[in-house]
């Protein structure tokens, strides 16, 4: 798969970070994990692991909300790196790999960050899962078509 | 050479992610631009004999499972950890849980970790407000005469006593439960809030 310009990817990641810090994408109380969806989608288009790690860390700097260590940072870094590796190994079509990784990533994020939230707010988690997959698929398709 | 530069930059960013918050205020301002919130300094006014800091909501917690907001008022505006946060100076919204020089983080009543002792209606029925995307009242005595539209007031030492939160709706009295429960009707739309009022002299007056 043809690789994208690093600075284009960085711009997209930073835009996603800013959007995720606002309530703009909030639909019926469900906010997408846009940054995770973007990071997983662009993992298919990043030139190499080093530049991808840089993008993931830059995203987390922007998502940092409180002082001190945030477990979400560690989880998103882990999920992003796992998707970078897994996306290249899964045998389905790339856009299906992308959707599966975003769906699994959403569930894993909650299992690791706030497992109790899944049981008490299942409709929100499922809504976010669908929302993330839709946004991630759109981003993936835009990248794919822009690369001919 | 460029490889080492990338490593150096990444290590620096990793350090800032895990240990620093020096970029948070700048990020909040950028989020405010996206939200079309004007760059205004927080204003300190006097309302009903109280000192109130009117602050802008600059960003919201990026994930669904917490409901925290970040304001453009911090230590320089007299905001401290524990400062009560209200919608218009009269309706309780939450409390400050973290402050920096020029921003603060607020835990709202919609946060899953928020809970508060409250009194309901003119009969002063005791209940516990439990934070959630749709906050609810729990631990209401089975025999309590709680009614629709009864006003809900704060009854915790952490907040001004008798500050309004909302009103009662959707009372549930299940045989399987030892207590009644109820939902809250609020006089505002949380997603449409742009400003909040912080009772900055609350701790001095307490």
UniProtKB/TrEMBL annotation, chain A:
Q: Which residues cross the membrane?
A: 6-27, 34-61, 99-118, 124-143
**Membrane: is it a keyword of this entry?**
yes
Record keyword Membrane present: yes
Task: Name the keywords, alphabetized.
Answer: Membrane, Transmembrane, Transmembrane helix
Name the domain of life this protein comes from: Bacteria
Stated name of the protein: Rod shape-determining protein MreD
Q: Which species is the source of this protein?
A: Candidatus Harrisonbacteria bacterium RIFCSPHIGHO2_12_FULL_48_16
Automatic annotation (TrEMBL), chain B:
What Pfam family is a match, any one?
MreC
GO terms in the biological process aspect are:
regulation of cell shape
**Keywords, sorted A to Z:** Cell shape, Membrane, Transmembrane, Transmembrane helix
- Keyword Cytoplasm in the entry? The reply is no
Span-the-membrane segments of this chain are 6-26
Superkingdom: Bacteria
Gene Ontology, cellular component aspect: plasma membrane
Gene3D superfamilies according to UniProt: Rod shape-determining protein MreC, domain 1, Rod shape-determining protein MreC, domain 2, YefM-like domain
Domain Rod shape-determining protein MreC beta-barrel core residue range list: 62-199
Q: Which InterPro entries match?
A: Cell/Rod_1, Cell/Rod_MreC_2, MreC, MreC_beta-barrel_core
Per the similarity annotation, which family is this?
Answer: Belongs to the MreC family.
Name under which the protein is recorded: Cell shape-determining protein MreC
Organism, by scientific name, is Candidatus Harrisonbacteria bacterium RIFCSPHIGHO2_12_FULL_48_16
